[in-house]
Amino acid sequence: MTGHFDPSPTTTTQFHKSDREGIGYDRTAATGDGFTELYAPATRDAYESLANCPEELLLFLHHVPYSHRLDSGKTVIQHIYDTHFSGAARVAEMRTDWEGLRRRVDHRRFTQVHRQFGEQLTEAAKWRDTLTAYWFELSRIRDEHRGGWLQAIVAPADTALLGGERNELPVRVVNATGSGLRTVTTLDVPEGWRSEEATAYVASREGETVRMTVVPPPAPALATLHALPRSGAVPVLDSSLRSLARVVVVPPAARCVHALDAGPASAPVLKDYTRLSPATGWHEGAGFGWVGNAPDATDTGLFDVVRRDYVRDSAPAVLRLTLPAGRCTAHLLTGGPNTFNRSLIVRVDGVEKARSERLDGREFTWLRIPLDGGASGREVDLELSSKEDETWHLSACVVLADGREGV
Question: Which of 87, 119, 139 is the last residue before a domain boundary?
Fold first, then answer.
Protein backbone atom coordinates (compact mmCIF):
# COMPACT_ATOMS: atom_id res chain seq x y z
CA MET A 1 0.00 0.00 0.00
CA THR A 2 1.22 3.48 -0.81
CA GLY A 3 0.42 6.65 1.10
CA HIS A 4 -2.20 7.49 -1.54
CA PHE A 5 -4.43 4.73 -0.13
CA ASP A 6 -3.95 5.57 3.53
CA PRO A 7 -6.90 7.07 5.43
CA SER A 8 -6.52 10.83 5.65
CA PRO A 9 -9.81 12.44 6.76
CA THR A 10 -8.09 15.71 7.63
CA THR A 11 -7.17 16.27 3.96
CA THR A 12 -10.57 15.27 2.51
CA THR A 13 -12.90 17.51 4.52
CA GLN A 14 -14.03 19.14 1.26
CA PHE A 15 -15.87 15.87 0.58
CA HIS A 16 -17.24 14.76 3.95
CA LYS A 17 -17.62 18.26 5.46
CA SER A 18 -17.20 17.04 9.03
CA ASP A 19 -17.05 19.55 11.86
CA ARG A 20 -17.86 19.53 15.58
CA GLU A 21 -21.60 19.82 14.91
CA GLY A 22 -22.03 17.04 12.35
CA ILE A 23 -21.08 15.30 9.13
CA GLY A 24 -22.16 15.35 5.49
CA TYR A 25 -22.21 17.66 2.47
CA ASP A 26 -25.25 19.98 2.40
CA ARG A 27 -26.31 20.00 -1.24
CA THR A 28 -29.89 21.16 -0.65
CA ALA A 29 -31.37 24.26 -2.25
CA ALA A 30 -32.67 25.51 1.10
CA THR A 31 -29.37 25.70 2.99
CA GLY A 32 -26.65 24.16 0.79
CA ASP A 33 -25.09 24.53 -2.64
CA GLY A 34 -28.34 23.82 -4.55
CA PHE A 35 -27.20 20.58 -6.21
CA THR A 36 -30.64 19.03 -5.66
CA GLU A 37 -32.13 21.55 -8.13
CA LEU A 38 -30.51 19.58 -10.97
CA TYR A 39 -33.04 16.77 -10.57
CA ALA A 40 -36.62 16.43 -11.79
CA PRO A 41 -39.16 17.89 -9.33
CA ALA A 42 -40.23 14.61 -7.69
CA THR A 43 -36.63 13.44 -7.19
CA ARG A 44 -35.54 16.93 -6.13
CA ASP A 45 -38.23 17.10 -3.45
CA ALA A 46 -37.26 13.69 -2.08
CA TYR A 47 -33.58 14.58 -2.00
CA GLU A 48 -34.29 17.98 -0.48
CA SER A 49 -36.20 16.42 2.43
CA LEU A 50 -34.20 14.98 5.30
CA ALA A 51 -37.10 12.64 6.08
CA ASN A 52 -37.47 11.30 2.53
CA CYS A 53 -33.87 11.27 1.34
CA PRO A 54 -32.66 7.68 0.65
CA GLU A 55 -30.42 6.72 3.54
CA GLU A 56 -27.57 5.62 1.28
CA LEU A 57 -27.43 9.21 -0.04
CA LEU A 58 -27.97 10.94 3.30
CA LEU A 59 -24.44 12.26 3.86
CA PHE A 60 -23.97 12.99 0.16
CA LEU A 61 -26.91 15.42 0.25
CA HIS A 62 -27.28 16.58 3.87
CA HIS A 63 -25.14 17.79 6.77
CA VAL A 64 -26.61 16.11 9.84
CA PRO A 65 -25.77 16.04 13.57
CA TYR A 66 -23.79 13.04 14.80
CA SER A 67 -26.83 12.21 16.95
CA HIS A 68 -29.13 11.88 13.89
CA ARG A 69 -31.06 8.58 14.07
CA LEU A 70 -30.90 6.17 11.13
CA ASP A 71 -33.58 3.64 10.17
CA SER A 72 -31.66 1.04 12.18
CA GLY A 73 -32.19 3.09 15.33
CA LYS A 74 -28.48 3.84 15.59
CA THR A 75 -27.05 7.33 15.55
CA VAL A 76 -24.79 8.32 12.66
CA ILE A 77 -21.73 8.33 14.92
CA GLN A 78 -22.55 4.88 16.33
CA HIS A 79 -22.95 3.58 12.78
CA ILE A 80 -19.45 4.89 11.99
CA TYR A 81 -17.99 3.18 15.05
CA ASP A 82 -19.80 -0.13 14.53
CA THR A 83 -19.10 -0.50 10.82
CA HIS A 84 -15.37 0.14 11.18
CA PHE A 85 -14.97 -2.23 14.13
CA SER A 86 -17.10 -4.94 12.52
CA GLY A 87 -15.28 -4.52 9.21
CA ALA A 88 -11.90 -5.17 10.81
CA ALA A 89 -13.35 -8.12 12.73
CA ARG A 90 -14.77 -9.58 9.51
CA VAL A 91 -11.33 -9.55 7.88
CA ALA A 92 -9.97 -11.52 10.85
CA GLU A 93 -12.80 -14.04 10.41
CA MET A 94 -12.03 -14.35 6.70
CA ARG A 95 -8.40 -15.11 7.45
CA THR A 96 -9.46 -17.77 9.99
CA ASP A 97 -11.80 -19.30 7.43
CA TRP A 98 -8.94 -19.43 4.92
CA GLU A 99 -6.68 -21.12 7.46
CA GLY A 100 -9.28 -23.90 7.65
CA LEU A 101 -8.50 -24.72 4.01
CA ARG A 102 -4.80 -25.31 4.67
CA ARG A 103 -4.85 -28.99 3.58
CA ARG A 104 -7.26 -28.43 0.67
CA VAL A 105 -5.25 -25.81 -1.25
CA ASP A 106 -1.76 -26.08 -2.71
CA HIS A 107 0.98 -24.61 -0.50
CA ARG A 108 1.98 -21.77 -2.85
CA ARG A 109 -1.58 -20.50 -3.28
CA PHE A 110 -2.41 -20.94 0.42
CA THR A 111 0.69 -19.01 1.52
CA GLN A 112 0.14 -16.19 -0.96
CA VAL A 113 -3.52 -15.63 -0.01
CA HIS A 114 -2.75 -15.95 3.72
CA ARG A 115 -0.12 -13.22 3.37
CA GLN A 116 -2.59 -11.01 1.55
CA PHE A 117 -5.18 -11.53 4.29
CA GLY A 118 -2.51 -10.47 6.81
CA GLU A 119 -1.90 -7.27 4.85
CA GLN A 120 -5.64 -6.65 4.59
CA LEU A 121 -6.03 -7.14 8.34
CA THR A 122 -3.34 -4.52 8.98
CA GLU A 123 -5.03 -2.09 6.62
CA ALA A 124 -8.48 -2.71 8.13
CA ALA A 125 -7.12 -1.99 11.61
CA LYS A 126 -5.47 1.17 10.29
CA TRP A 127 -8.72 2.45 8.77
CA ARG A 128 -10.71 1.46 11.88
CA ASP A 129 -8.37 3.21 14.31
CA THR A 130 -7.79 6.26 12.14
CA LEU A 131 -11.40 7.04 11.28
CA THR A 132 -13.10 6.19 14.57
CA ALA A 133 -10.49 8.25 16.40
CA TYR A 134 -10.97 11.15 13.99
CA TRP A 135 -14.76 11.29 14.37
CA PHE A 136 -14.62 10.79 18.12
CA GLU A 137 -12.25 13.74 18.38
CA LEU A 138 -14.75 15.90 16.47
CA SER A 139 -17.98 14.66 18.03
CA ARG A 140 -16.76 13.78 21.56
CA ILE A 141 -19.61 11.21 21.63
CA ARG A 142 -18.62 7.92 23.26
CA ASP A 143 -19.03 4.53 21.61
CA GLU A 144 -22.13 2.91 23.15
CA HIS A 145 -21.05 -0.66 22.39
CA ARG A 146 -17.41 -0.67 23.51
CA GLY A 147 -15.72 0.56 26.66
CA GLY A 148 -13.85 3.37 24.97
CA TRP A 149 -10.20 3.87 24.19
CA LEU A 150 -7.17 6.14 24.38
CA GLN A 151 -5.74 7.78 21.31
CA ALA A 152 -2.74 10.00 20.71
CA ILE A 153 -2.11 12.18 17.68
CA VAL A 154 1.16 13.83 16.76
CA ALA A 155 0.12 17.45 16.31
CA PRO A 156 0.62 19.25 14.15
CA ALA A 157 0.29 16.25 11.89
CA ASP A 158 3.50 17.04 10.02
CA THR A 159 6.48 18.56 11.77
CA ALA A 160 10.01 19.72 10.97
CA LEU A 161 12.63 18.59 13.51
CA LEU A 162 16.23 19.76 13.85
CA GLY A 163 18.65 16.84 13.62
CA GLY A 164 21.01 16.30 16.55
CA GLU A 165 19.09 18.71 18.80
CA ARG A 166 16.35 18.44 21.43
CA ASN A 167 12.95 19.13 19.89
CA GLU A 168 9.59 19.45 21.62
CA LEU A 169 6.99 17.50 19.67
CA PRO A 170 3.35 18.31 20.55
CA VAL A 171 1.20 15.19 20.99
CA ARG A 172 -2.55 15.32 21.60
CA VAL A 173 -3.77 12.59 24.01
CA VAL A 174 -7.55 12.00 23.89
CA ASN A 175 -9.58 9.97 26.39
CA ALA A 176 -12.64 8.28 24.83
CA THR A 177 -13.65 6.45 28.03
CA GLY A 178 -16.20 7.33 30.70
CA SER A 179 -13.72 8.33 33.42
CA GLY A 180 -10.63 10.48 33.86
CA LEU A 181 -7.31 8.72 33.31
CA ARG A 182 -3.68 9.22 34.28
CA THR A 183 -1.79 8.53 31.05
CA VAL A 184 1.82 7.84 30.12
CA THR A 185 2.72 8.47 26.48
CA THR A 186 5.83 7.25 24.65
CA LEU A 187 7.02 7.72 21.08
CA ASP A 188 7.83 4.77 18.87
CA VAL A 189 10.88 6.22 17.08
CA PRO A 190 13.36 4.80 14.54
CA GLU A 191 16.69 3.33 15.61
CA GLY A 192 19.20 6.01 16.56
CA TRP A 193 16.55 8.43 17.84
CA ARG A 194 16.04 9.37 21.49
CA SER A 195 12.79 10.37 23.14
CA GLU A 196 11.32 10.82 26.62
CA GLU A 197 7.88 9.77 27.87
CA ALA A 198 5.28 12.25 29.08
CA THR A 199 2.57 11.91 31.73
CA ALA A 200 -0.77 13.72 31.85
CA TYR A 201 -4.20 13.47 33.46
CA VAL A 202 -6.92 13.46 30.78
CA ALA A 203 -10.57 13.93 31.72
CA SER A 204 -13.30 11.77 30.17
CA ARG A 205 -14.07 12.75 26.55
CA GLU A 206 -11.36 15.41 26.70
CA GLY A 207 -7.86 15.80 25.34
CA GLU A 208 -4.57 17.16 26.62
CA THR A 209 -1.53 18.23 24.60
CA VAL A 210 1.80 17.00 25.96
CA ARG A 211 5.14 18.19 24.64
CA MET A 212 7.47 15.27 24.12
CA THR A 213 11.25 15.58 23.87
CA VAL A 214 12.73 13.90 20.80
CA VAL A 215 16.30 13.97 19.44
CA PRO A 216 16.74 12.65 15.87
CA PRO A 217 20.15 11.93 14.29
CA PRO A 218 21.78 14.91 12.55
CA ALA A 219 21.42 13.74 8.94
CA PRO A 220 18.45 14.86 6.78
CA ALA A 221 15.70 12.24 6.98
CA LEU A 222 11.99 11.49 6.86
CA ALA A 223 10.36 9.33 9.51
CA THR A 224 6.94 8.14 10.69
CA LEU A 225 6.43 8.57 14.44
CA HIS A 226 3.73 6.79 16.44
CA ALA A 227 2.56 8.18 19.76
CA LEU A 228 1.61 5.35 22.15
CA PRO A 229 -0.47 6.33 25.23
CA ARG A 230 -1.27 3.88 28.01
CA SER A 231 -3.35 3.78 31.17
CA GLY A 232 -3.74 0.36 32.72
CA ALA A 233 -5.63 -2.03 30.44
CA VAL A 234 -7.52 0.65 28.48
CA PRO A 235 -7.49 -0.18 24.73
CA VAL A 236 -5.41 2.11 22.51
CA LEU A 237 -6.25 3.13 18.95
CA ASP A 238 -3.29 3.92 16.73
CA SER A 239 -4.81 7.19 15.58
CA SER A 240 -1.38 8.62 14.83
CA LEU A 241 -1.80 6.77 11.54
CA ARG A 242 -4.55 9.11 10.45
CA SER A 243 -1.98 11.83 9.74
CA LEU A 244 0.82 9.36 9.06
CA ALA A 245 2.67 11.41 11.71
CA ARG A 246 5.35 11.99 9.06
CA VAL A 247 8.15 14.29 10.19
CA VAL A 248 11.02 15.76 8.25
CA VAL A 249 14.46 16.06 9.87
CA VAL A 250 16.72 18.90 8.77
CA PRO A 251 20.17 19.77 10.14
CA PRO A 252 20.53 23.07 12.01
CA ALA A 253 21.77 25.82 9.71
CA ALA A 254 24.97 26.22 11.77
CA ARG A 255 26.07 22.70 10.74
CA CYS A 256 25.58 23.37 7.02
CA VAL A 257 27.66 24.78 4.19
CA HIS A 258 24.33 25.87 2.67
CA ALA A 259 20.91 25.70 4.37
CA LEU A 260 18.31 26.76 1.81
CA ASP A 261 14.53 26.73 2.31
CA ALA A 262 12.96 26.94 -1.17
CA GLY A 263 9.72 28.77 -1.96
CA PRO A 264 8.22 32.23 -2.59
CA ALA A 265 9.98 35.19 -1.02
CA SER A 266 6.86 35.94 1.06
CA ALA A 267 6.53 32.45 2.62
CA PRO A 268 7.80 31.52 6.12
CA VAL A 269 11.41 30.34 6.37
CA LEU A 270 12.81 27.68 8.69
CA LYS A 271 14.79 29.11 11.62
CA ASP A 272 18.24 30.37 10.54
CA TYR A 273 17.79 29.00 6.99
CA THR A 274 18.09 31.23 3.91
CA ARG A 275 15.27 31.69 1.44
CA LEU A 276 15.84 30.27 -2.06
CA SER A 277 13.18 31.98 -4.20
CA PRO A 278 12.78 32.71 -7.92
CA ALA A 279 14.41 36.08 -7.22
CA THR A 280 17.61 34.47 -5.91
CA GLY A 281 19.84 35.10 -8.95
CA TRP A 282 23.50 34.14 -9.05
CA HIS A 283 26.14 36.85 -8.74
CA GLU A 284 29.74 36.84 -7.62
CA GLY A 285 30.07 36.50 -3.87
CA ALA A 286 26.47 35.33 -3.42
CA GLY A 287 27.38 31.75 -2.53
CA PHE A 288 24.33 30.37 -4.36
CA GLY A 289 21.69 31.38 -6.89
CA TRP A 290 19.94 30.61 -10.17
CA VAL A 291 21.90 30.87 -13.39
CA GLY A 292 19.77 31.92 -16.35
CA ASN A 293 16.06 31.16 -16.12
CA ALA A 294 14.62 30.99 -12.61
CA PRO A 295 11.78 28.60 -11.62
CA ASP A 296 8.33 29.50 -10.33
CA ALA A 297 7.32 29.08 -6.66
CA THR A 298 4.26 27.96 -4.68
CA ASP A 299 3.19 28.20 -1.04
CA THR A 300 0.35 25.78 -0.25
CA GLY A 301 0.04 26.69 3.43
CA LEU A 302 -0.08 22.95 4.21
CA PHE A 303 2.43 20.90 6.22
CA ASP A 304 5.34 22.39 8.16
CA VAL A 305 7.48 25.39 7.32
CA VAL A 306 9.84 23.30 5.14
CA ARG A 307 7.37 21.31 3.06
CA ARG A 308 4.51 23.78 2.70
CA ASP A 309 6.29 25.67 -0.11
CA TYR A 310 8.68 24.94 -2.97
CA VAL A 311 10.15 26.13 -6.24
CA ARG A 312 8.99 24.30 -9.36
CA ASP A 313 9.10 24.33 -13.14
CA SER A 314 8.54 22.23 -16.22
CA ALA A 315 11.76 23.57 -17.72
CA PRO A 316 15.25 22.83 -16.39
CA ALA A 317 16.83 25.31 -14.00
CA VAL A 318 20.45 25.62 -12.86
CA LEU A 319 21.28 26.24 -9.20
CA ARG A 320 24.92 27.29 -8.73
CA LEU A 321 26.57 26.62 -5.36
CA THR A 322 29.93 27.72 -4.00
CA LEU A 323 31.67 24.78 -2.31
CA PRO A 324 34.52 24.83 0.23
CA ALA A 325 37.60 22.67 -0.25
CA GLY A 326 37.06 18.96 0.19
CA ARG A 327 34.15 16.60 -0.25
CA CYS A 328 30.59 17.45 0.72
CA THR A 329 27.05 16.20 0.08
CA ALA A 330 23.96 18.04 -1.14
CA HIS A 331 20.59 16.85 0.13
CA LEU A 332 17.58 17.92 -1.95
CA LEU A 333 14.04 17.55 -0.57
CA THR A 334 11.33 16.96 -3.18
CA GLY A 335 7.63 16.15 -2.98
CA GLY A 336 4.31 17.95 -2.61
CA PRO A 337 1.69 18.52 0.11
CA ASN A 338 -1.41 17.80 -1.97
CA THR A 339 -0.80 16.29 -5.43
CA PHE A 340 1.35 13.50 -6.81
CA ASN A 341 4.77 14.56 -8.04
CA ARG A 342 6.87 13.75 -11.04
CA SER A 343 10.52 12.80 -10.80
CA LEU A 344 13.19 15.33 -9.87
CA ILE A 345 16.30 14.69 -11.97
CA VAL A 346 19.58 16.21 -10.75
CA ARG A 347 22.62 16.60 -12.97
CA VAL A 348 25.98 17.92 -11.82
CA ASP A 349 28.11 19.50 -14.52
CA GLY A 350 25.91 17.74 -17.09
CA VAL A 351 26.07 14.24 -15.53
CA GLU A 352 22.96 12.72 -13.94
CA LYS A 353 23.57 12.04 -10.24
CA ALA A 354 20.10 11.33 -8.82
CA ARG A 355 16.48 10.82 -9.84
CA SER A 356 13.50 10.56 -7.51
CA GLU A 357 10.67 8.09 -7.98
CA ARG A 358 7.18 9.34 -8.76
CA LEU A 359 5.59 10.29 -5.41
CA ASP A 360 1.96 10.26 -4.35
CA GLY A 361 0.40 13.32 -2.72
CA ARG A 362 1.81 14.13 0.74
CA GLU A 363 4.93 12.06 0.05
CA PHE A 364 8.47 13.44 0.11
CA THR A 365 11.98 12.12 -0.35
CA TRP A 366 15.54 13.35 0.12
CA LEU A 367 17.96 12.99 -2.80
CA ARG A 368 21.64 12.65 -1.86
CA ILE A 369 24.20 14.19 -4.25
CA PRO A 370 27.98 13.71 -3.58
CA LEU A 371 29.98 16.84 -4.45
CA ASP A 372 33.68 17.76 -4.40
CA GLY A 373 35.08 21.23 -3.80
CA GLY A 374 38.58 20.15 -4.78
CA ALA A 375 41.74 21.39 -3.09
CA SER A 376 40.68 25.03 -2.77
CA GLY A 377 36.90 25.14 -3.29
CA ARG A 378 34.92 25.79 -6.47
CA GLU A 379 31.53 26.57 -7.97
CA VAL A 380 29.27 23.71 -9.03
CA ASP A 381 26.07 23.74 -11.09
CA LEU A 382 23.10 21.57 -10.15
CA GLU A 383 20.70 21.23 -13.07
CA LEU A 384 17.18 20.44 -11.85
CA SER A 385 14.72 18.97 -14.33
CA SER A 386 12.02 16.38 -14.90
CA LYS A 387 10.78 14.27 -17.77
CA GLU A 388 9.29 16.01 -20.79
CA ASP A 389 5.96 17.77 -20.03
CA GLU A 390 6.34 17.12 -16.30
CA THR A 391 7.10 19.48 -13.39
CA TRP A 392 9.82 19.11 -10.78
CA HIS A 393 9.61 20.39 -7.17
CA LEU A 394 12.31 21.45 -4.71
CA SER A 395 11.45 22.23 -1.07
CA ALA A 396 14.92 22.47 0.47
CA CYS A 397 18.59 22.19 -0.42
CA VAL A 398 21.09 21.37 2.34
CA VAL A 399 24.83 20.99 1.78
CA LEU A 400 26.94 19.33 4.47
CA ALA A 401 30.70 18.88 4.56
CA ASP A 402 31.49 15.16 4.66
CA GLY A 403 31.77 14.05 8.26
CA ARG A 404 29.29 16.67 9.48
CA GLU A 405 26.20 14.46 9.03
CA GLY A 406 27.07 12.41 12.05
CA VAL A 407 28.33 15.26 14.21
Answer: 139
